[in-house]
Structure formats: C-alpha cells, structure tokens
Amino acid sequence: MDLFTASHITKQYAAHKALDDVSIAVPDGCIFGLLGPNGAGKTTLIRIINQIIAPDSGELLFQGRKLLSRDVEQIGYLPEERGLYKKMKVGEQALYLAQLKGLSRTEAEKRLTYWFSNFEIMNWWHRRVEELSKGMQQKVQFIVTVIHQPRLLIFDEPFSGFDPINVNLLKEEILNLKAAGSTIIFSTHNMASVEELCDHIALIDKARKLLDGNVKAIRKQYATNTFEVRYNSFDRELGSLLPGSYELLTAGTEDDLRVARIRLPQEAGPNELLALLMPHATIHSLHEIIPSMNDIFIRVVTEKKGAE
Amino acid sequence: MNKILLIIRREYLTRVKKRSFIVMTILGPLLMAGIVIVPIYIATTTNEVKQIGVIDETGLFHEKFKNSDNIRFHYLDTDIRSAKEVFGKSGDYALLYIPRTEVALPTNAILYAASQVNINVKSYIRNVMSKEIEDLKLEAQLRDLTSNKEASIQLDDLLRSIKTSVDISTIKIGADGQEEKSYTEVSMVLAIFGAILIYFFIFMFGSQVMRGVIEEKTSRIVEVIISSVKPFQLMMGKIVGVALVGLTQFGLWVVLTFIIVTAVTTSFSGKSSPEIPSRQLMEQTAPGFDPDQVIHAAPETSAGNDVNEVMAAINSIDFPVMIGSFLFFFLFGYLLYAALFAAIGGAVDSEADTQQFMLPLTAPLILAIVVAQFIVQEPEGPMAFWLSMIPLTSPVVMMIRIPFGVPYFQVALSMILLLLGFLGTTWIAAKIYRTGILLYGKKISYRELWKWLRH
After folding, report:
1. Domain-by-domain residue ranges, chain A?
2. Strand order of the sheet with strand B94-98?
3. SS3 state of residue B175
4. CA closest to B441 among chain A residues
5. Single pTM value for the model
C-alpha cells in the first residue's frame, strides 16, 4: 500500500516552472529516494508535501485520503537549510519544537529524556545551542525531527554538512527508523547513498519526473547485457573470437589476469559467451555489469537533453 | 495547547529573560523619574519670593494664608475683574480668587497666573484652605455636640464628615488681563509625550520583530518551524509576543516611575511645605478633645497632593478618550508597523540588507515626529487632520491632537482607518514574509517584492 501519493503536481513560480505534472507514490515502510540535479524541483516537491507551500494543481493523498493540515504532526522534516535557535538552551528548544509537533509537554519531556540518554547527550540539556559543535547540533536536530514518531520522515539532503562519521551514524539511524516501521522520503543528488539505502526512487530533472520505481528493477531495466570476464592464456586475440554482433568494450590486464567487458547481442546470454571463450581460455570469473544509479542518472538526463 | 500560544510564549519568555530587557526596565524609570523630578526639585529650591494677591469673597480666609520664606500673600479689596486688569502690572506671581458661596462652605478657588503655577504654591494654598474648612466644620460639629448632651458621636464618622478636598483650578491670563486658553502647556506636554512614546515603542519593538525574523532566517530554523505551523501563525505569534514584551516593559516603567517619583517628591515636599497651624486651632476650638487623633487621621499627605495636583491640572482633558485612544493607537500603530517590519525581516538575509527597505517604512513615522511641533500649534489645521487620518502617521499625529480636543467622529474615523491599515499591512506582510523566509542568499529588489505580492 502507498503511504503517500502525489499526483500531477504543478507549481509555477513567477519566472519558472518548478514542478510540471509530477506524480510519485511512496510505498509504506520503504525508503524512497528523490533524485535529481540541483534546481530540479526536489525541494519544491518536499515543501509541498510538508504543506509549506501549496501546489498550483494536483492532488496529495496521505494514508489513502486527502492530505490534511493536521497531518504535519505525522510528518517529520529535516530541511536542507536547517538550524536551531542559537541563543536558546538545548532542552528548552527541543521541548518547544516537540510541542509544536503536537506533543504534550510531559510526553515531550519523557521522549526527549529517552533520546538524549540514548545519544548520551543528557548533559547538554542546559547548554545553549551556540556552545555546541556543528556535529552535536546536527544530533539535536535529528532528535527533534523524529521525536514525535512520525509515520513519514522527510530528509532533504541529509548528509550535507555532516562529516563521514556522522554520515554513517545517520545512515544507521535511518535504517533503524525504517526497521521500526517509518516510511522515509529522502532527497539527494548523491547517487552512491541511493543504492545503499533506497528501495524506491523517483528521478526529477527540470521540473519533470523522468523515471521512477523499484531500484533493483530500474537497474535491471537499464542493464545493457554487458558482462565482465576475467581469464588468462589466450592463444588468439579476443576480438577475433567474437562474432560481429558482440561488442568488445574494454580489454586490459589486472593482477596477471586479463579483464574484458563485452556487450552481448540481445538474444545472447552468459552461456553463449562462455561457449565462445572456453575453448581458448581459462575463465576465472564472469558477471553481469549492472549500471549504477549514477550511470542511469547521467544516461537518463543526457538522453532527455538529446531528445529536446 | 494552541500552537500560536506556544509561539507567543516562547517569543515572550526568551525576551523578558534577556539581560538587556532587565537593564532597560530598570534604567527607563530612573530616566523618566529624573525628567519628572528635576523640574520639581528646581521649582522647590528657587528662592525667588512670590507675591500672591488674594481676593476672598467669602471672608473666611482673612489672614489665614501665612507668609512663608518664599511666598507672600497680600489681600486685595477690589473686585476680581479689576484685579485681573491690573494683574499684569502688579508684578504679582499669581492672583488667588475664592468666589462667594451661598449655602455651603467654599470648596474651590481659582488661581490666575501668567505662567504655569508652581506646584508647591498650589499645594500650600490647598492645604490652608482645606484645613480651614475642616476646622470650621469641626467647630460646627462640636457646637452641636455640646448643645446636645444626649448625642454620642463616632470619631470615624466625625472625621469623615469634615474631610474636605479643595479644587483649585488655574487659569492663565495675559498682560492685558485677558484669560488665555488654559492648560495648553499641559496639553502640549501630554501630546508630545504620548507621541514620542508611541514613536519610540513602534521603533523599538517593531525592529525587535524584524531582528527576530532575521534571526530565524539566518539560523535556518524557520523551515523547521513552518513544517509544524503556518508561516502566518509564526509571524503573528512573534508580533503578539513582542507586543506583550513591550506592554510588560511599559507597565513596569509606569509602576516603577510612579514609585520613584512618589518617594522622592514626598521627601521634598515634607521638607518644604510650610507648617499648617491647625493643631493650635483645634486646641482653641475644642478644649478637652484630643487633637492628636484628629490630626493623625487627617488624610493630607503631600504625595497624594501632588498626584491630585497633576490630575487637577489636566482636568480639562477628556481622560477616558485620552487613555482609551492612547492604548488603541499605541497597540494598532505597533501592529501595523510590526507586520511591515516582519516582512522586511523575511525578505532580507541579514540586518545589513534592511537599509533600503527601512527608509520608506520609517519615513512616515519620522515625518510625524518632525511635524509634531507644527501640529501642536495648529491641532485643527489641514495638515494635522490629514496626517491623523493616514494610518502610517495617525498613531503619532492623532496622539498629538487628542489632548487639544478632537471631534469624536474624527477619532473614530482615524481608528477605523488605522484598523483597515493594520489589516492591509498584515495581508501584504504575510505574502512577502511567507515567500521571503524560504529564500536564502538572494538580494531582493522592490520589483521582486511586487511580484511576490501579486502572486
């Protein structure tokens, strides 16, 4: 079931179109990656989901019904541009933000005590935010994002501004939240983290959605029937062995083994390739090259440009 | 709990807990008390001997006004009209006129003077008159008592029945003996004071709103908050929270100033008021009656007197209208400007960028203060009228006009226009604010703002 869907969202700013007929569906309990280059419209879409701005047209459904203004209490949002009141004390501030999300004061206090002890930052409670390091502030920021146990979590470029240690910590926490049943939308232009974390993605460029679906399925879909083979002792040139419909992409040597990438014709599979090679070489390994999200991203975006 | 209340609460508490708020709360009253006390102090310490002519049509106060170090009384035999005519040439400081009363004892007097009458002189005259009248009443009561042996009296009732307050009004007269429009000075002081207070309040707390918005923008917390509440709620919560801070500060100032002024003037007047010889009188008229009790219970304190004094001096002013409209213009003037200040805060990235927008916003306010001196001279003139109707200037200009008396329909019209102006600026501000707070690192031009408004 889809926890959240947006259909045919359009948003026009004075000079440019930020979103043009964009639809996404976020399945319950998954991590949904919202991908796209800078300025593609990701943040606009996220702000629309958070009801910070209203779309010009389109429909938003949350848990199968129309998105309501009180649903903000079911959503946790970590914006790309994020921060805290510098002069305010950490505990007081966390309490305030938790209450704004609809928690009662006592409940907020209880949960914050839990989280603060969990992160071992209880002794920061009475410190001002400006006294904390950037990384410490990010931890507090993360806590106030999830404190109300939202059904839907939205992280906009969550890893920007984090050092590698905290990036790992955050990834871990995101996976924990998913395991605990939260649904997570997370927007990024960093493709490496997508493959690691996301189950579903939508790719947006220039206000349009270009691609969406399950990550594994997409990568399969964009696979080009290319294989990498490692072998040694060839008595003949590899190129001369392959029929015309086979394409030798790269050939080289690595750790005393020869490595080649070969794109097969559509009707051929790994067995056909092996049959061609085995009489002449010792095969050490053979595997399919599945394109990375980064490759797909670049391919889709450039294809789109070519089409225009 | 309502979220806007949470916002108001935070805005209020973080500000009143600041050290600068506490410092301002203490310094303000000291400054204001200084402004009030210094003239009084100077007035009480001048050694100039003041001659006061007395026309007593009742004949009750003959030789009752004792000369003191710097006040000399002389009794005139002429009628009041001719006395007023020659007043300018007589060199007297003031002319005290106690008009004849038919049945009851006199309870009011008129003090004619060329300038504002010194408060000590007035309170001395009042003291003498009320003591004298109280003595006369007491005498009459005691006569009743001695003639009617059966009657028992309660001391409290007796004291209550003789307690008298005397109303002394001051009227300014020119050298030719013509009465001038009275109280202009008091009106002027009230006008300018009220106007400056509103001006100051709008500026000080309006820019606090602006700084608060900029703080939220630069610290990047604003987007976190508006994912929980509407931008309008955040803006109005801040405006109302800061207004409450302002009212708290203002209230504390009034109370503290009053306490300081009262304390200081009490110690002044205690030293300089001439001794009233009523104890002596009591002993003569009522032997065997313990005068101490009566004197103790007599409700005359100098501090109370000074307050009465100020109240009497401004009796001619319509106070319910004055205070009511002050609060209205004070509050709505602030609200109107605070919304615009919030919009500026939302549109810019840092305080340094506010300059280009601040000028057109503050120009009407500054204009209103600059023309204040012309308006007090001609409070009914066309400039005064129009500026007191335009919502951007009316909070200040109407406050200047009100002490001089403004037709009610004009006040009402000005209030309605201000209310509409407030709704208008809030509507404009909300549009600019909600767009501006989400934009970072972009210099905003007027053209840009215009686009946001139309969008």
Report:
1. 2-220, 224-289
2. B71-75, B50-56, B94-98, B108-113, B167-172
3. coil
4. A81
5. 0.73
Q: Which residues of B touch A146 (CB under 8 A)?
A: none
Q: Report the CATH fold assignment for A2-220.
A: Rossmann fold (3.40.50)
Task: With beta carbons under 8 A apart, name residues in chain B contacting A91.
Answer: none
Give me the residue from A51, A69, A97 closest to B224, CB to CB: A97
In tens digits, chain A (308 residues) has pLDDT values of: 789 999 999 998 877 888 999 999 999 999 999 988 888 889 899 999 999 888 999 999 999 899 998 888 899 999 988 889 998 999 999 999 999 999 999 999 999 999 898 888 889 899 999 998 888 888 889 899 999 999 999 999 888 777 788 788 888 888 999 998 899 998 988 777 777 888 999 999 888 998 888 888 888 888 888 999 998 877 777 777 888 888 888 888 888 888 989 998 888 888 988 888 888 888 899 998 888 888 888 888 888 777 76
Q: Under CATH, to which class is A224-289 assigned?
A: alpha beta
Contacts 24+ apart (CB under 8 A), B45-48: B46/B70
Residue B176 carries which side chain, given as an amino acid letter?
D
- Segment 139-198 of chain B within 8 Å of chain A by CB: none
- Out of B229, B438, B455, whose CB is closest to A100? B229
- Residue spans of the domains in chain B: they are 3-36+186-266+316-454, 46-182
B46-182: CATH number: 3.40.190.10
Nearest to B209 by CA among B423, B354, B80: B354
The letter for the amino acid at B408 is Y
